[in-house]
Design brief:
By secondary structure, the protein is an alpha+beta fold. The protein folds into two domains: 7-78 and 159-204, Nucleotidyltransferase, domain 5 (2-Layer Sandwich), CATH 3.30.420.40; 81-157 and 210-232, Dna Ligase, domain 1, CATH 3.30.1490.110. It is 26% helix and 34% strand. The chain has five helices and eleven strands; from the N terminus they run βββαββαβββαβααββ. The protein has helices spanning 46-64, 98-111, 159-170, 182-188, 196-204, and strands at residues 7-13, 17-24, 29-36, 70-75, 81-90, 119-131, 134-136, 147-158, 175-181, 212-214, 227-229. β1 (7-13) and β2 form a beta hairpin. The radius of gyration is 20 Å and the shape is elongated. Mean pLDDT is 88; it is low at 218-226.
Length: 233
C-alpha cells in the first residue's frame, strides 16, 4: 500500500452540508465525501459532525496509510461577527511603513479589548487605507504622507464555540490547523470560478494582501499583533 505523507485535509461545514476532502501536494484529490443535512437549524449540528468524522477519518487514514494529524476548517456559521473601526494618525510627512501599521493595529486591539474578550479572532482585515485624503485599496509602498487612517475589520467567533469544535476534532487525534470563514472566502473570490479547497488554500497562502497574519503572543515575547503582510512574503 502506498503511504501518502504530504497531503492537506479540508473540512467544510454549513448548516446544510458537511464535506471532507483530502488533497495530495500535487493537488490530486485522494478522498472526498459529502453529507447533506435536512435541518431547520441556522447552525450545524455538532453531534452530526462527530458522526460524520467517525464515518470518514478512519477510512481516510486507511487510504493514506497514514494518520490525519491536522485539518483546515472552513465554516459557514451565524456565530461569526465583525467588529469594525477606523483609526487616524499623523505621520508628519514621513514614509508610511509597516511599523506604522503595526502600531495602529495594536491600538485598535486595545480599543476593542472588551468587545473581543473571550473571542477567537479568525481574520484581521484592512478594508481601506485613507492617506492624505485619498483612498487606497492596498498598502502603498514608499509613500510619504502627513496623515493616514485604516478601516479595520476583526472577524471573530465566540471562543467557547471554537473550543467545542476543537474538542470534537481532538477526539480523532486531529488538531486544528487553520480556521476560515466560508463567506469571507467566497466573497474574496466572487469573480472567480474556483473549487472550495483551492480558494481556502489560496487564502491560507496569502492571496489577500490586506489580511494580516497574526503571530502567537507567546512566541519570543512578540506583540500579539506583530504580523507580516502577505505582499512582503
Amino acid at each position: 500500500m502506498v503511504e501518502y505523507s504530504n497531503f492537506d485535509t479540508y473540512l467544510f461545514l454549513t448548516p446544510k452540508k458537511f464535506i471532507i476532502l483530502v488533497v495530495k501536494e500535487t493537488k490530486e484529490k485522494v478522498y472526498e465525501n459529502e453529507l447533506s443535512l435536512v435541518s431547520d437549524n441556522k447552525d450545524f449540528d455538532l453531534d452530526k459532525l462527530d458522526e460524520f468524522l467517525n464515518d470518514n477519518i478512519f477510512k481516510i487514514e486507511k487510504i493514506l496509510n497514514n494518520f490525519v494529524k491536522n485539518v483546515n476548517l472552513i465554516i459557514d456559521s451565524e456565530n461569526f461577527f465583525s467588529v469594525s473601526l477606523s483609526i487616524k494618525k499623523n505621520n508628519y510627512g514621513e514614509t508610511l511603513t509597516t511599523t506604522n501599521i503595526n502600531y495602529i493595529l495594536n491600538e485598535a486591539r486595545y480599543y476593542c479589548s472588551d468587545t473581543l474578550k473571550n473571542k477567537k479572532l479568525v481574520h484581521l482585515l484592512i478594508d481601506n487605507y485613507f492617506i492624505d485624503g485619498k483612498n487606497y485599496s492596498n498598502f502603498p509602498q514608499n509613500l510619504r504622507c502627513d496623515y493616514f487612517s485604516l478601516d479595520i475589520n476583526f472577524m471573530c467567533l465566540p471562543l467557547n464555540y471554537v473550543i467545542k469544535l476543537e474538542d470534537i476534532i481532538k477526539k480523532y487525534q486531529i488538531s486544528l490547523n487553520k480556521l476560515l470563514s466560508m463567506k469571507y472566502i467566497e466573497k474574496h473570490f466572487s469573480n472567480k470560478n474556483l473549487k472550495l479547497d483551492v480558494m481556502a488554500q489560496k487564502i491560507i497562502d496569502g492571496d489577500n494582501p490586506n489580511e494580516v497574519v497574526l503571530t502567537s503572543k507567546k512566541a519570543e515575547n512578540k506583540s500579539f499583533f506583530e504580523k507580516f503582510f502577505h505582499f512582503f512574503n
